[in-house]
Design goal:
126 residues, alpha+beta, five-stranded antiparallel beta sheet, rod-shaped
């Protein structure tokens, strides 16, 4: 017959299982990663000024950067900056740049869930 092991005194309890701690760390890591991804997606472009501009007709904008990812900023129409365009009209709920016609330049933009096309007329440099 075997003798059962003696119970642990109250001050020498076995350490809690590390399994629960590891699972909680993994879940916490996933939650933090998701929060960072959402923050970057929604907040960072607005904080850095890289968010698309939803200009209105009559405003002027500068368009810089590559064609596949242009940076648009509103500016004073009398600024005389390079790449200065006046917004002739804004067409909401579309990316169809052909709606501006042949005589105007067009720039499709998206700001959050809003999609729109800016119809632009080049402003002559001063």
């Amino acid at each position: 017959m075997t003798t059962p092991p003696a119970p642990f005194p109250s001050e020498q309890q076995p350490a809690p299982a590390k399994k629960d701690s590891a699972i909680l760390k993994k879940i916490g890591g996933v939650v933090v990663a998701i929060a960072i991804a959402i923050g970057v997606k929604l907040g960072l472009p607005h904080l850095t000024g890289d968010a698309p501009v939803h200009a209105e007709a009559g405003e002027c904008v500068t368009v810089t950067g590559p064609d596949n990812d242009p940076k648009v900023d509103t500016v004073d129409c009398s600024s005389g900056k390079a790449d200065l365009f006046k917004v002739v009209k804004v067409i909401d709920d579309t990316f169809d740049v052909n709606k501006c016609g042949e005589e105007l330049s067009a720039l499709a933009q998206q700001l959050d869930s809003d999609k729109f096309v800016l119809c632009l007329e080049e402003v002559a440099a001063k």
